[in-house]
Amino acid sequence: MKKAVLLFLVLNGVLSFAQKKYVAVIHGGAGTILKKNMTPELEEQYKEKLKEALTQAYKHYKNGKSSIEAVEAAIMVMEDSPLFNAGKGAVFTNNGRNELDASIMFGKNKNAGAVAGVTTVKNPIKAAIAVMQQSEHVMMVGKGAEQFAKSKGLEIVPSSYFWTQQRWDALQKVKKKELNANEPNAMNLNYPSYYWVDQKFGTVGCVALDKDGNITAGTSTGGMTNKKYGRVGDSPIIGAGTYADANVGISGTGWGEFFIRATAARTVAAKYEYHNKDIKTAAQEVIDEIGAMGGDGGIIALDKNGNVAMPFNTEGMYRGTVTESGEIEVQMYR
């Protein structure tokens, strides 16, 4: 009997030791991400940038900083890179503008901030944090959000800062396809598939858990290529593209209209809290619901115990994790 008890304790200890505790998870967009369409050089660029974002998040964790600061640091890395549809790499609207959205939520007290349709704020995630921490509001849009960001000392840049040749060319291809119904599908137009990921996808996000056990979720995007009429997706909408409470944090990427209709991020949290679903099951069920509605995309989620989920219903999703010991892992394909 004693031997059996001892064996149980040893095995239980081994299993506990083997279970990783994650402190940050990120995504950089979901969609048609196929290894056959990715050059080795470009694949390495994506992996290195994802690792850099996770490294920044982990540095803040190790230094005892808040999960807000960890999320900010990780998302800024991706906003400053033309590889992702956020900040510098944002896609173009139908009228040739870059209109950026971002949001953040702190789980401990459910404070939240968001901006939408900004065109001159270098790092929209910083503007979202400023709204959360330095105003009585949750969301600001357009010129008002830009005026607020400037008043708080955030870096303002000319709209030309966000212009990149690849995103501009992608817009021209989409508009050409619209004008010519007989043109072959855009995915066959001599452009690597990763350009077309960002017609609906490419959003970046991070969920982090700090040493005090507080969870923060943040999301940033340039939206949908060729979007019209001031369209805003799920990324700046609390409960749709971003949500955090004391139990879980969630950030989504994909076809925003479906994430809004499903109240995707909040639904994951509700399934976890009220239905006692584990984080993987809760997140997967929401992605399945979005898929059943006709939507595409992915979710990253992290719970208070350091468990992570990264489901998606597309051919790939740029994603990565870091554990409390600093172990980093990044993935791109299914």
Using the alpha-carbon principal axes, give the shape. Answer: globular
Order of the strands making up the biggest sheet: 4-3-2-6-5-1-11-12
The first-to-last residue Cα distance is 46 Å
Mean pLDDT: 91
Strand % is: 15-25%
Give the beta-strand count: 12
Unreliable parts: 13-17, 184-198
CATH superfamily: (Glycosyl)asparaginase
Determine the number of helices (DSSP H or I, runs of at least 4 residues): 10
The domain tally reads: 1
Spatial extent as radius of gyration: 20 Å
The fold-level CATH name is Glutamine Phosphoribosylpyrophosphate, subunit 1, domain 1
* Derived structural class: alpha+beta
Would you mind describing this structure in some detail?
With 334 residues, the protein is of the alpha+beta class. It has helices at residues 2-18, 40-62, 67-79, 124-134, 142-151, 165-179, 193-197, 256-261, 264-274, 279-293; strands spanning 22-31, 100-106, 111-118, 139-141, 204-209, 215-221, 242-244, 248-254, 297-303, 308-309, 316-323, 328-333. The strands form two sheets. It has an eight-stranded mixed sheet. Strand 2 and strand 3 (111-118) form a beta hairpin. Residues 13-17 and 184-198 have low confidence and may be disordered.
Which short descriptors sum up this protein?
334 residues; alpha+beta; Glutamine Phosphoribosylpyrophosphate, subunit 1, domain 1; eight-stranded mixed β-sheet; four-stranded antiparallel β-sheet; 12 strands; 22% strand; globular
